[in-house]
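Changelog note: in this version the structure field was regenerated for every chain. One regenerated record is shown below for reference.
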Amino acid sequence: MDGSPAEKVATIDYKSGTSPRRRAWRVLRMVFLGLAVIGGLLLLADWAYKRYTNVYIDDARITADVISVSSRVSGWVTKLPVGEGDRVKAGQTLVSIDIRDAKLRLSELDSRLRAIGAERSRALTEKTMIDRQTKSAQSVRRSQVRAAKAALAGRKSDLNLARTDFERTKKLLNRKVVSRQRWEERRNAFRKAEQSFQQAQAEVAAATASLIQAAADREQLLVLDRQLTMLTHREAEVSAQRERQLLNLSDRLITSPVDGVVDKTFVNPSEFVSAGQRLLMVHDPKKIWVSANVKETDVRHIKIGSAVTVEVDAYPDKLFEGKISKIGNAATSEFALLPTPNPSGNFTKVVQRIRIRVNLDNKDELLRPGMMVEVNVGIDDR
């Protein structure tokens, strides 16, 4: 027997695969597919528009002035009061180096300065004493020279008188006016006057020699002046050594140059460090920027002061605003350690990169040196 009409229709729809449920799913699938295609086209259009109106740079990272703190002197590390991640203030002690030997050296130089000061005082006292003694002796010798010259003048007058009496007596003796005894008396008086005159001349010569000796004794003052000059130079030399030693002593207390954060330490207490050895690294978290490499084909679209949006991989839900502050004057390949000459003549053109700097405001101090970021620069002329 044949079935009812409804059963016949259901059998035909089942055999032909065109049941109402299947047709509804087919329509819904077509709608979803159409919406997906439209959405994809919209995203593609948005991506193309942004690529046309923006410059994207994914070769960028956070940079800061990371200061490598090193030692200017050699010695044993006695204290290391900070560790990695600690915040420090400018002038805060980071590392202390043993100061015992430096303090002993400073005490030695202080002793040498005191010894030089004592020697200077002795030389000044001796100079004052010699000055007074020689000045007094010189005055006495001048008086003796004047007295000897006065006595010489008197002896000369006596000699002239005795010579005149002797010659007159001699003439009278020839004429038999006086006795020979009288003549002998005048001769003896003349000879005594002559000897006295010669003695007076010797006394004048001796007094003059004494005056010259007194003047020569004052030359000791010049010797003492030379000694004082030498002491002055020695004192200046030792003072310079003392200043250097004070600098050496202060260098054994290494302080932070900035307000910042300790990034890494390279020494431990009780280790021996050499001059110039790196001890730790610090940076100021408020002074960070983005260092990015731009394709040379995009440099014409970038200007100093252009607004920049920065996406940080560490914070995908945050955007950071910044401005371009510097544009490099040479491609990064110019500073490569290994140059790339082309002696064989085979040339492959490669797009070069120009480094730019983007200043950021790191108020919350979320950004840290070395973080990878993506930079989006808007093109003003499009």
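Spot check on this record: The mean pLDDT is 83. Residues 71-97+252-282 form a domain with the OB fold (Dihydrolipoamide Acetyltransferase, E2P) fold (CATH 2.40.50.100).
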